[in-house]
Amino acid sequence: MKKFPHRSGVPGFRFAGIAGGLKKNGDKDIGLILADAPCAAAAAFTKNIVKAAPVLIGRKRLRDGCAQAVLVNSGNANACTGSRGMRDAEASCAALARELGIRQGLVLPGSTGVIGVPLPVDKITSAVPRLVRAASPSGAADFCAAIMTTDTFPKIVALEDTVAGRPLRVCGIAKGAGMIMPNMATMLCYIVTDVAIDRKLLSAVLRQQVELTFNRITVDGDMSTNDTVLALASGKSKIDINKVNSITYNIFINILHEVMKRLATLIVKDGEGATKTLVIQVRNARTEGQAKQAAMTVANSPLVKTAFFGQDYNWGRIMAALGRSGAQFAMDRVDIFFNAIQSVKNGQGVERNIPKLQTVMKKGTIAITVDLKAGAQSCEVTTCDLSYDYVKINADYTT
Amino acid sequence: MKKFPHRSGVPGFRFAGIAGGLKKNGDKDIGLILADAPCAAAAAFTKNIVKAAPVLIGRKRLRDGCAQAVLVNSGNANACTGSRGMRDAEASCAALARELGIRQGLVLPGSTGVIGVPLPVDKITSAVPRLVRAASPSGAADFCAAIMTTDTFPKIVALEDTVAGRPLRVCGIAKGAGMIMPNMATMLCYIVTDVAIDRKLLSAVLRQQVELTFNRITVDGDMSTNDTVLALASGKSKIDINKVNSITYNIFINILHEVMKRLATLIVKDGEGATKTLVIQVRNARTEGQAKQAAMTVANSPLVKTAFFGQDYNWGRIMAALGRSGAQFAMDRVDIFFNAIQSVKNGQGVERNIPKLQTVMKKGTIAITVDLKAGAQSCEVTTCDLSYDYVKINADYTT
After folding, report:
1. CA distance A164 to A273
2. Each residue's pLDDT tens digit, B111-165
3. What's residue B29's pLDDT?
4. What pLDDT sits at residue B218?
5. pLDDT tens digits, residue range A292-339?
6. Of A236, A251, A269, at which residue does a domain stop?
7. How far off is chain A from B25, nearest CA to CA, in Å?
8. Predicted TM-score of the model (pTM)
9. Distances in Å between the alpha carbon of A11 and those of A7, A35, A228, A263, B77?
């Protein structure tokens, strides 16, 4: 497995990103992914009860596992916009379908931005011809720019491998920033690949990998109304991966996992105001659910997050978060390590290591390993710290 | 029911608070409540699995529902301190018991402050004679000062009523600030009353009122290892309230509720860095549990809290928090009001009210009322916003 330049493209796909006037500052805000032909498609959507119009439409259109185009805007989430929001999303997709001469059901909408404001649908429909003309195999970076909101850097991961001398490519493009939480809050991720895969199998492997990657990151515990991870497979490589657990299948799964894992980590690194990446691993919990619950509770604790921002060595806040997580354990058996240096032994601080641990607090990435000694199940969650800038970004966002 | 000056005291009790050198700045840090004789006592403790030594000892000593003295220190939580922490708390209580000439089991310990640092027990034991000498019926303010940590103002509520011409008094003293959450995180509250009440009944009414008051406030969703609400009843008023639902009983319950509710609200007002008080009421949920879960999810959402800090009118974040709360409802039926001005009608923003709602965002206290139209159960939760100062206070706390 190795990186490839995303400008060299993924066979079967073109991308575009243009400025359509939805972002006040004139940045790119309308993006397109266009497949040469209808192809296998699968998605995982937000579990939030409050779902944006594009999520409701995308879910319906993906029932047949087939799509050809993705039309995404930033600057407006088209969420909590009622029947008007549904009509607006459908009208945007219809304009694109007409321009492309394809069936409307093959177009999937996506939106990210402020909630509860009607979508400026005219801006989108009038930009469609220009958007289609701009589509190019090398346009992933433009598409990525068009879906960004408070992101501070683009998130594109392109990895390939070879099967019997032929290349197999997976390219993922994501936006994240705030409101990231298990079940993928305010996060859009589009994955394109040239493998040939059955639509049902694509759906199954996507869900499996979402659980292992995007559902194990969190920025602030919030979950958005718009989260989507969508995968499209063109089949252009003629590499068939439908034989589960075959060598070819495993090569594909490994690449897919790595693309999604790296994108998830990039999203945390770009968490709103983040200055540190925290990798929290809970080991030896009684159940896998308790391991995840314990790791997530530590990851989302404002007291834990602000301590790391302040580079303040304070393991007591981790113990307190573990203790309220719902995981079952004996407090006098817990061990905690920061970057492999022992911080807590059997529930009490290891005083001789404090100078070393204070040094660890200055690192940009810190691995916090918790051994509950209560069972045999583990879970790793990645998060970031909570800084002044998180408050600043989110206190000012809509104004 | 009316206020009384806490300096005039509650018959049967004396209070003290002195500086013992646990706080580096020389502020008061050791407090005492002393009853004239053993009296009825009950407490509600943290539900965190990680419990501080004084909680473990207090829980054990209260099995007989009887106590005479409470010894509390700030500056050190005596949590995650293992068997040494237990010995230290016992030694502190033993020193007080010796000084008073009472049985050690009648002394209840309490601690608040940094976790995982051994209690400076010598400072406490050597301060005990001075502490006892300082005890006075008018000393509630001293006791209150001695239990404060990051609190910015003292929290004392003293209310009385009359029964057949005789006064009945309840005085509550609390500390809070950060880490406040249902189940009473990092919060100490001591309530004294002169009614005559059976210890089992005292325990039952205390638990009932904790659920209706302290368990319905939250600052940051964290829960501490030390939380305690303790009530002591001297019986000195000779007013017997053991007849459940009698007029006298109801007078007492009303006063107790009001003391606890007012203290809970003061704790939220003094939430770390708080600039606003948010009263979130969820109406017409399917179950009471869902009503509470929905209100708590909104109250603990960092995105909601930062929006209020920024005075940024953003109802979409409330909808998003409701949608991930676990409460069941139809998103296109939800109504939301800010100080009785309608913000959301059937899941969509009420645009004509935006100017009025932007004005509401500038208020110090904002009532957010959510009607889910999914059932008949309600719950009200009080919280505060999330500001730069929350981050500052918590990034720097132990250093």
Report:
1. 45
2. 998 888 899 999 999 999 999 999 999 999 999 999 998 888 999 999 999 998 9
3. 97
4. 75
5. 999 999 998 888 888 898 888 889 889 989 998 999 999 999 999 999
6. A269
7. 20
8. 0.80
9. 12, 9, 23, 21, 61
Nearest to A347 among B82, B302, B316 (CB): B82
Count of C-beta atoms within a 10 Å radius of residue A77:
28
Calculate the dihedral angle through the C-alpha atoms of B266, B268, B270, B272, rounding to the nearest 10 degrees: 160
Do B353 and B218 lie in a common domain? no
Task: Indicate yes or no: CB of B324 within 8 angstroms of CB of A222.
Answer: yes
User: Cα distance from A302 to chain B (closest Cα, Å)?
Assistant: 6
pLDDT in tens, A328-380: 999 999 999 999 999 999 999 999 999 999 999 999 999 999 999 999 999 99
CB A173 within 8 A of CB A158: no
- Could you give the 3-state DSSP secondary structure of residue B31? strand
Buried b (16+ CB within 10 A) or exposed e, B181-212: bbbbbbbbbbbbbbbbbebebbbebbeebbee
Residue A185 has pLDDT above 80, yes or no: no
Question: What is the tens place of the pLDDT at every residue in B273-318?
Answer: 788 999 999 999 999 999 999 999 999 888 888 889 888 888 988 9
Written as one string, the DSSP assignment of B56-119 is HHHHHHGGGSEEEEEEEEESB---S-HHHHHHHHHHHHHHHHHHHTS-GGGEEEEEES-SSS--
Give the CA distances from residue B209 to residues B63, B213, B215, B241, B255, in Å, rounded to whole numbers and listed in that order: 20, 6, 9, 16, 11
CB-CB contact of A198 with A291 (8 Å):
no
Chain-centroid distance, C-alpha A273: 17
H-assigned helices in chain A: 53-61, 82-100, 121-134, 140-147, 199-212, 247-269, 288-300, 302-309, 315-323, 354-360, 388-395
User: What is the nearest CA distance from A96 to chain B, expressed in angstroms?
Assistant: 27
Q: In 3D, which of B29, B75, B80 has the Cα closest to residue B52?
A: B80
Please give the backbone phi and psi of residue B167, each rounded to the nearest 5 degrees, phi first: -75, 145
**Is B312 close to A50, i.e. CB distance below 8 A?**
no
Please give the structure tokens belonging to residue A234: 């063109």
pLDDT at A5 over 70: yes
Looking at the structure, tell me whether residues A246 and A355 fall in a common domain.
Answer: no
- B186 a catalytic residue: yes
* Amino acid symbol at A22: L
Q: Residue B273: its pLDDT value, please?
A: 75
Structure confidence at residue B183 (pLDDT)? 37
Compute the distance between CA of residue A192 and CA of residue A180 in angstroms, rounded to an integer: 22
Does the CB of A324 have a partner CB in chain B at under 8 Å? Answer: yes
Q: Are residues A34 and A133 in the same domain?
A: yes
Q: Answer yes or no: do A116 and A13 share one domain.
A: yes
Residue pair A55/A225 in contact (Cβ under 8 Å)? The answer is yes
How high does pLDDT run on average in chain B? 91
With an 8 Å Cβ cutoff, is A386 touching chain B?
yes
Residue B8 shares a structural domain with residue B27? yes
Same domain? B232 vs B366: no
Q: Which of A186, A193, A218, A225 is catalytic?
A: A186
Q: Which residues, in sequence order, are bridge partners of residue A167? A: A162
What is the structure's pLDDT at A150? 80
Into how many domains does chain B fold? Answer: 2
Tokens of B124: 């406490």
Query: Measuring CA to CA, how many Å separate A178 from each of A80, A273, A288, A321?
Result: 19, 9, 26, 22
Is B288 strand, coil or helix? Answer: helix
